[in-house]
Amino acid sequence: MAALFPFSAIVAQDEMRLALLIAAVDQSVGGVLVFGDRGTGKSTAVRGLAALLPPMRSIKGCRYNCDPAKGCAVKDGCAVAGTTAEATWVPVPVVDLPLGATEDRVVGALDLERALTRGEKAFEPGLLARAHRGFLYIDEVNLLDDHLVDVLLDVAASGENVVEREGLSIRHPAKFVLVGSGNPEEGELRPQLLDRFGLSVEVKTPGDLETRVEVVKRRDAFERDPEGFMAGWQSHDDAVREEITAGRNVLASVTTPPEMLEKAAKLCMALGTDGLRGELTLIRAGRALAALEGAPALAETHLKRVAPLALRHRLRRNPLDEAGSTVRVERALQELFGGAAPGPVLVAGVAERRAV
Amino acid sequence: MAGAGATPRDSAAPWSEALLAAALYAVDPAGLGGIALKAHAGPVRDTWMSLLQGLLPPDAPFRKIPVQISDGRLLGGLDLAATLQAGRPIAERGVLAACDGGTVILPSAERRDGLVIARIAAAMDRGLVAVERDGFTSVSPARFGVIALDESVDDDERPSAALLDRLAFHIGLADIAVGGALDVPELAASVASARTAYRCVRIADASIEALCAATLVLGISSLRAPVLAVKVAQAHAALMGRSSADDDDINAAARLVLGPRATMLPAAEPDADDQSREPEQGEDAPPDQPPEQTEEGQEPLEATEPTVQELQDLVLAAAIAAIPPGLLAQLKAAQMARSHKSASGRSGALQKSQRRGRPAGAMRGELRDGARLNVIETLRAAAPWQALRRRDASHRAASANRVEVRREDFRIMRFKNRSETATVFVVDASGSSALNRLAEAKGAVELLLADCYVRRDSVALIAFRSKTAEVLLPPTRSLVRAKRSLAGLPGGGGTPLAAAIDQTIALASLVRRGGQTVSVVFLTDGRANVARDGAGGRARAEEDALASAAGLRALGLKALLIDTSPQPGPQAEKIARAMGALYLALPRADAHALSKTVRAATSPGARDA
What we know:
The structure holds two protein chains of two kinds.
Chain A: H1 14-25, E1 32-36, H2 42-52, E2 56-59, E3 87-90, E4 94-96, H3 103-107, E5 109-110, H4 112-118, E6 123-124, H5 127-130, E7 135-139, H6 146-158, E8 160-165, E9 168-173, E10 177-182, H7 191-196, E11 199-203, H8 209-224, H9 226-251, H10 258-271, H11 277-292, H12 300-311, H13 325-337, H14 348-355
Parallel strand pairs in A: 1-10, 1-11, 4-7, 7-10
Antiparallel strand pairs in A: 2-3, 5-6, 8-9
Helix pairs in contact in A: 1-2, 1-9, 1-11, 8-9, 9-11, 10-11, 10-13, 11-12, 12-13
Chain B: H1 13-27, H2 29-32, E1 34-38, H3 43-55, E2 62-64, H4 71-75, E3 76-78, H5 80-86, E4 91-93, H6 95-98, E5 103-106, H7 114-126, E6 128-133, E7 136-141, E8 145-150, H8 161-164, E9 169-172, H9 184-197, H10 205-217, H11 224-239, H12 247-258, H13 270-284, H14 289-296, H15 308-321, H16 327-338, H17 349-352, E10 358-364, H18 375-382, H19 386-392, E11 411-416, E12 421-428, H20 431-455, E13 458-465, E14 468-476, H21 479-487, H22 497-513, E15 517-524, H23 538-555, E16 558-563, H24 570-578, E17 582-585, H25 591-602
Parallel strand pairs in B: 1-8, 1-9, 2-5, 5-8, 12-13, 12-15, 15-16, 16-17
Antiparallel strand pairs in B: 3-4, 6-7, 10-11, 13-14
């Protein structure tokens, strides 16, 4: 419908783009939270990402996007029964959870049409089903109704949506990358939800003239001629898509040297992050970055660059510490690894293309 | 050079500026976002509104969003009446989708619920409304502009920053008279022709750079501001019949879009400052021009380009001239507004409990305003009666598979809504308190802040010393801001207790109007020695304080007064009694003990989660 601003045409915001690319390469990093200033292209980036994700295989006609390699996971409720079903290519779902969505549409509920016209009891899958194997995007995630947040937390943790109501009993897989964005001035995010995101990005409005001018110019060009602008960036978007595909293909072969595991553990200990989730995410995100860059093994530079993303929102909140969590992560990195603070986090290939 | 409105600050200007904004808006309502109009209801506003409507296409929607609007009406959902009649689900189009191609009018914009604003903003950003409600999924185009009518009396209330950020124009019609006669049809004709020409208006890179540079100098952080300014310059040029934007157009954009958003003035006197500041930006900019121009093919504009330096001076001067007087006061209001999210919107905890929160089952009820139908429960309630009802209705042409739902079947949603709590801390920073107790008080407040963060309560801070009481921090959940303002709190001076209580009453009433439960914690030794009018003298000061305390009591809030003096005296207790507050003498308590006490005294009932 409306024209989409191309992902590759987004100016600056390297960290946000990196986080999204990592999540695209390895969906198991567990979601991305983008929090920051108004008008920094948060939702533009997420919606732009949708346009360049490589398609995936799915069972034809399956309402739950089931993977043909594994067969349909839903016993009753999927239109297709058994594993003999035909496979087809579908775009990776990037499902928007709009503000004001009601719970019945999120988790799924009685099919109204059939209930009203035919008096049948049938399950109508909701947004969680639609987002299976893809992304679920919540803009203004901090304004989401508390009861919906609870539902999401539960499903994101278990990878399964269980509906037991109105005489319906349905259980279907719902594994998705939760992507949330918001502006902290409108209200803070519940700490429990914060922890569920694998990566967290803080976006700020760029303060240098050159970047701002570039943002305004591209926006102007896009609004004058959306189709032309999109066409002009098509090849750049294609290149990013190839990068994601290549990254996925090599991800499994990226090796993880034991000393890197040790370093990740040390870093998490130094920062006092709760639980193992931080460490796991740090390693996974580091490997995904290595895969994106075509590196054969996880290296220190990868860890350093993803550490702020993977850890900043897991630090135990110390209300009396002045320093922001990003600073604390960087401080710990410096102490452990020495050397300069982590450089620009941008994926090398993307940087080159931007200079064109 | 001197086009319309080139003399921004002469006496007749405000009205013509307001008209210019209306005309520019009418060129591209959705693209320019809209107009925040600060004005009281009255003939001036009515005249302006009817002029604006005259400039818009006659068939374009022009609709008000009532203050009490449900999500169903705003976004769309199940049209119950039609559904029951048809026997199959029929969607209702929401107001936002119905306003596609037109204008949404938002009365009382300053009191709108943040959630309503967020929904409107989401539709503005995408130009469409996505609905996932009541069993429906739909996406409808919704390209509209917003006229936000800001009817606030003082600076305590402002429309939400999220909304203001998206509206190109922020204009005020207070204290101005309707200017000379206007040939509306003629203006409407030029608006109509500008509407087609506007997208093709070229704008020089140097002009874009000048507008961007001005946003930096004026402390305008949002990138939407320069984007909107560029569009306004284009619209202005199109309105004047030009095919490329000239100085006059850039000037108008700076004046209308950037001026009202300024959050700071250039450090020194603007003209002198420009000389020292601009050159470096001028040097920065040119190097990245050539590659851009090859991409966009904008070379022909070179001819009209003055030097970058000149242009930037011009833009800045125009924007500064348009900065309203009393910038500082306005900034303060802006800060208030930013943290007002939870305090905005109408009050009424009862209504809220039918509209959001955790679902707590359904109940029989009427579909009155704000209530949400629980379709499933309603259908379930109707189901057993179907056979009977069909028999009754058989003489009518009821189809066999239509579900008969009657009014008595209606089930509405019930929500358990944990009422939000705001705690107002009133900290005595006077000389008598400051010396020994201020540090503990600060420490305790910090600990309580951390606690409030966990409970998702908001916190406000009032400090009093010397002659006045000041709201250091309007209700917020932001720990960082709270901490910062607390850390910067100086001590010393007299004890203007009466002023502090008055300030507390004002703030507490405001917060309560927003639907929050307020509790108040005073940390003071109660030794008032500054009267309400700022004069010294213990006797009068105490008299005033007691009078104010009675006023606070009338509000019926949960209040706590902690006597922080080393030797607790009768004064503080007397004040506490007068304000109906719990009195606690804690002469030796440290920060931890203080925070524990306050928590115990204020939280029961607010901690069911």
